[in-house]
Amino acid sequence: MHRRRFLQAAAALAATAAALVHFTPAAAADKRIILIAGRPSHPPGMHEFRAGCLLFQKALASVPGIRVDVYDGGWPSKEAGGVRVDDNSVFEGADAVFIYADGGKGHPAIQGERLALLRDLAGRGVGLGFAHYAVEVPAGVPGDAMHAFIGGFYEHLYSVNPMWTPSFEKLPDHPVTRGVEPFATHDEWYFNMRWAPQGALRVTPLLVATPSDEVRRGPYVHPRGPYDHIVADSGRAETMMWVAERPDGGRGFGFTGGHTHRNWGDPNQRRILLNALLWIAKVEVPQGGVRDTITPDDLTRNLDKKPEKK
User: Fold this and answer.
1) Pairing state of beta strands 96-100 and 31-37?
2) Do 221 and 163 contact (CB within 8 A), yes or no?
3) Whole-model pTM?
4) Domain ranges of the chain
């Protein structure tokens, strides 16, 4: 009888221990990354925010210890009283938030009380990342917030957005550049960002190239330019991607490319963005960078239904 009770107790203890071993490490390791995709805009193959975010989600699926959630339509929402309203509860437990969307006055992050929400998240150490048009906000309160979040932003009539092919030949030694080789893609690469005052936070340029005089003279996508101050800076190297470390320990990044969806097929452009998502979530970036299983067919999936350009 005593032997049977001993064996039963031992089995129960072993089962409990096994459950704890299975549960505890997973709970401790989990990091949550939220990707916010903007509403459809531009002709097919351009500003494919939803398809891009779903591509990043798939690419990160093999990284252990993280969870990646995608919300499209510009902001997480839910139905209440027959209408769609913001669902900010989804940000609870987030370690990083990435926004890939149209910007300017219509930027999803500056509508209503959303900017205050992002300030609160940043204050809690949540990483923030912005790509392409989403790095543009109006000067003033939104611009000041971007300075605090990521160290710089695109300012209308100060920054420029030409279609060109910068050659990223030298990459600094940083976790976000792990496994990234020199590359060049033809895209709407913005430059001449409005940077935060020196010393406000630590900003590290990652993708840097020197526009030719022809690129500086334009035309830019909008307005077509040229701008005298851009032409006057002939020969100056420009930053197209950067990372920032905030005084509170939080992290952020800005990436100005991403207009043309097919460029995510370049493994180096894709890898530096994926690495950045891990880095702002404070996940250790693999020594060789994120290695994914993305194929050319994946680039054709989840594209927005848009009328063909005539």
Assistant:
1) parallel
2) yes
3) 0.90
4) 30-300
The answer to whether 134 and 161 have CB atoms below 8 angstroms apart is no
Amino acid sitting at position 141: V
Q: Which CATH superfamily is domain 30-300 in?
A: Class I glutamine amidotransferase (GATase) domain (3.40.50.880)
Distance CA(280)–CA(177), nearest Å, equals 13
Segment 99-151, tens digit of pLDDT: 999 999 999 999 999 999 999 999 999 999 999 999 999 999 999 999 999 99
Cβ atoms 31, 95 nearer than 8 A: yes
Q: What does the pLDDT look like over 200-248, one tens digit per residue? A: 899 999 999 999 999 999 999 999 999 999 999 999 999 999 999 999 8
Q: How far apart are CA 124 and CA 139, in angstroms?
A: 25
Using alpha carbons, select from 81, 71, 75 the residue that is nearest to residue 111: 75
